[in-house]
Amino acid sequence: MPQYRKVVLAYSGGLDTSIILKWLQDRYSCEVVTYTADLGQQEDLEPARRRAQALGVQDIRIADLRETFARDYIFPMLRANPLYEGQYLLGTAIARPLITAGMVQAARESGADAIAHGATGKGNDQVRFELAARALEPDLAVIAPWREWDLNSRADLLAYARQHGIEVEQNPDGGSPYSMDANLLHISYEGGVLEDPDAAPPADMWRWTTDPQEAPDEPQILRVAFENGDPVAVDGQVLEPAALMEAVNAVAARHGIGRVDMVENRYLGLKSRGCYETPGGTVLMAAHRAVESLTLDREVAHLKESLMPQYATLVYNGYWFSPEREALQQMIDHSQQEVCGEARLRLYKGSVTVEGRQSPNSRYDPAQATFEDDQGRFDQTDATGFIRLSGLRLKPKEKE
User: Which DSSP category does 193 fall into?
Assistant: First the structure.
């Protein structure tokens, strides 16, 4: 068995990571540094500190990464309009490389020789954490307890917690909570009754968004302004990235926007059922696409759209720090130089509808597009030759 002197643990203070903390101490007789990232999950992180202290941790690190997360991870990703398998806005996937970067930095500063995570051997997160670590610090060891220990179920974890006096959050009926992940971009839910893909999500599962049926009866108009492809202002108020995400999240959640229930294909080959709440991201993507529709050249827009599934898959599978993602990002960022302007959106009972868009860089020419007299701006007779040439390859071959 390898020996480790000091290990940096990605620590939330929840069931899994609290047990992993104790397990690492017992298994490797090592010092554990806990690393907790504040990504805007709207949770009090002090309980995590207290639980770590109760287990004898001396080096407890809680990093406020909200601004970095929004500016350097969410916004660059949203420039691509990414949706994994047409639905998932990648809220968990985009957070993992940032958390890993923080853990690697903590390992460098503390002299740790390994990092550890609480991702299971069946999921995507193990791949995301470990690929990011390999890209940033390839000689740093990674410990994945779920691939080593003999705790094979939530019941086993709860029994271990009771045995060692570890405090964990539980439902009132004594069962384990959903497997959840929350940050500025989303909340995800897995496990429990959701493991039956035909079972409707319980109404009390959703923690962020209003039930669309109970959302306000009056629609709300929201204006989002963009510069170089990034949102910069809401209803005329200029905001920093994290504050902007929080503002749009609050409005969109109130109107029940951003719920997704899907069965997705994990990187390892398994299918899994997940539910997601991504209120602000859903609104921002609609607004971004609206401004892009005015400002992008047709062929650039089509090329960018064709690359979106590949980009989304790279992020989903954990390749944020890969050369191919970075190459795609450069192309995407170049395309965003003219994406400036404002979109006007109508939020109503779970839906977001674009009502208008404007841009100083608009390529839309109303004088040419009009159905009225265009004063000779567009010679419609030119279409005859265009269609004839476009149809040459469609002409049936003459029989001899």
Answer: G
